[in-house]
Design brief:
By secondary structure, this protein is mainly α. The chain is 50% helix and 11% strand.
Length: 145
């Protein structure tokens, strides 16, 4: 069984590998539509941490440390093209995408359903239900007319 950190790392590498393929990747439209700016611990400066309440600061610093560990492993593992792993903004983007767009399925599995993750962002109320069938397919059902 993989830990949550290991599952997150796998998604992080998958996003980078698809990004390397450019418009040849079936995930290109989704990747191209993703935000490039995130407001979480990974993207904060040390001055930002000082402005946060102590508990939130600790959580944010922990998140940033997890990102650094993943980034360091990625650079040592030679899994992707050197130009990809050297691009700090791309690496940070991919990690943030994996961190913020993934969902836990069942009790342990971490998945990303491209495009489905963009639902429920336009309203305070949930507009769709997202589930996975027995074969791992993402099923989206409207919850209101």
């Amino acid at each position: 069984r993989l830990s949550k950190k290991e599952r997150l790392f796998r998604l992080f590498v998958k996003i980078l590998s698809e990004y390397e393929k450019g418009d040849q990747s079936p995930y290109f439209p989704w990747l191209n539509a993703m935000p490039r700016r995130y407001y979480n611990g990974v993207s904060m400066t040390y001055a930002c941490f000082d402005c946060l309440p102590p508990y939130v600061s600790r959580l944010s610093k922990k998140e940033r440390e997890r990102y650094k560990v993943c980034r360091d492993i990625l650079q040592r593992a030679s899994l992707l093209d050197d130009a990809t792993t050297a691009n700090k903004e791309l690496v940070k983007f991919a990690y943030n995408a994996a961190l913020t767009r993934s969902t836990v399925v069942g009790t342990r599995e971490l998945r990303i359903a491209p495009m489905a993750d963009m639902f429920n962002h336009g309203s305070a109320e949930t507009e769709v239900g997202i589930t996975y069938d027995g074969e791992g397919n993402c099923v989206v059902t409207t919850s209101r007319d």
